[in-house]
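QA checklist item 7 of 12: single-chain prediction sanity check.
[x] sequence parsed
[x] length recorded as 215
[x] structure emitted
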Amino acid sequence: MRCPLTSHLLLCSVAVAGCAPGVIHWDTGTDDLRTALFVERTEDGLDHTTMLLSTGIFGCAIPTSDDPQIVSEALAALTVGACREDARHVVVDLYADPSLDPEGTYPYLGTGGPQADIARGADARYVGIEEAVGVPGDGLVPTYVPVEITRYDATGAPGEVRIRHASTDLRTGSFDLPEAGLSGRFAATRCTGDTSLFDLLVASPVAACVLTPVE
């Protein structure tokens, strides 16, 4: 079940069981987001918000435990979320002048990053696993090897990200990247403390995948 993401229904917490933190549409399909996380920082005098939106289930930190079996199974489950067929991952970067209200429209400017004459902007990266082969893993969880991947990392393409509600620990809104055939809605929660897994997935959503030689 998807939670409505309108501002008057923000009391529908994304933590409620069965309540997906958003939805993603691409050229050939639609799925619930199962992860919507964000981290904020200040960089070069701008407020910079990075969001991880994914159909896989991820936390902010790489799983740890005194029991190596528990860690192994947790990491295997994360690999499934990242690498299975039809997995979809979007990394969104928002930047704005600190004097601006964080709510509003961020025009998509591409991976060129902040520009001196633009007070607010966005860029995005997308990875979609179109086809993956399942192979037996060490435990009960199989391993998926992507064999066809769609990537989007354009510069200067049309599009926008809209933040409809911003609070200390929540960002709700939508994204529309027509050149990539991507759109969706999200209710992203803040990562605090250890962000090791978030950082890894933001750098490369398929970092944990065993890729075919062509990749």
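[x] summary fact logged: Residues 68-83 form the longest helix (16 residues).
[ ] second reviewer sign-off
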